[in-house]
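Batch 3, record 17
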Amino acid sequence: MMREADIERIEIDLLLEGIRRRWGYDFTHYSHASLKRRLEHARNETGLTHFTELLDRLLHDQRCFDGFLKHMSITVTEMFRDPPFYQAVREKVVPLLKTFPFVKIWHAGCATGQEVYSMAMLLHEENFLDRARIYATDFNKHSLDMAQKGVYPAKDMEAYAANYRAGGGKRDFSDYYSAGYDWAKLKDFLKEHVTFSYHNLVTDGVFGEMNLICCRNVLIYFDKTLQDRVLALFADSLRHGGFLCLGAKETLNFSGVKHQFEPLEGRQKIYRKCGVMHV
Ligand SMILES: C[S@@+](CC[C@H](N)C(=O)[O-])C[C@H]1O[C@@H](n2cnc3c(N)ncnc32)[C@H](O)[C@@H]1O
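Prediction for the assembled complex:
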């Protein structure tokens, strides 16, 4: 006799296939344990018992699908997350980028934008922001809207300021925002060099000729097959000598593109694509 868990696995497979064919979002290679937890949340929130019932709703109801997507994207982030990473970018990466008249930077999976504005602040302090164009992408349109606004809860500023200082920040963090009672609005100049746009790492293509790609704390949600595919996408999107930055728990050591890269700052997961970088 088939176990309940096996039946549920069939249901999940059908659910993912239905979503892929109906809406074009492909979650089949997301890592199973965390995917299942998120699917359970989505199902429980709609008050349904079986994933097949959820599939029925998702196939026919756009609003239900929009709500469902929020469950499928974990957008936890912060300014200057992992401060030693920013220190390493400042000390090791920026001096090399400065040999170029102009650079292109891609933040893939930027969530609500804190990572992007952290980079903009860092480049500003290194007198390099005017020579950069930053592309910030995510597949969560709601997060992208928030990123574009650059308005964050005032209560988070203290922790962000501590990260900023630990990451080598050179000013007073409060120089970068105007504070209201509940909200802090980042200064507009920080987004002048940023383009926010929709991009799905699973289904969309190369984002060309980048000098630096930051994709931090995104690959952990993918299985190895998908991680390998996305890392190949990054290798193809980078110029020779360009930099790839991953999250603390992520690596490219297992992947097919491993030999195209050398570690620049191994502990901070900063890699450099081999080959000569032409200006
Ligand atoms: C935990 S956040 C990481 C945010 C930021 N990079 C950081 O490290 O703080 C993961 C982000 O990856 C995005 N994401 C997940 N799957 C994606 C996909 N297939 N394409 C684009 N973005 C994706 C989610 O929407 C979410 O905003």
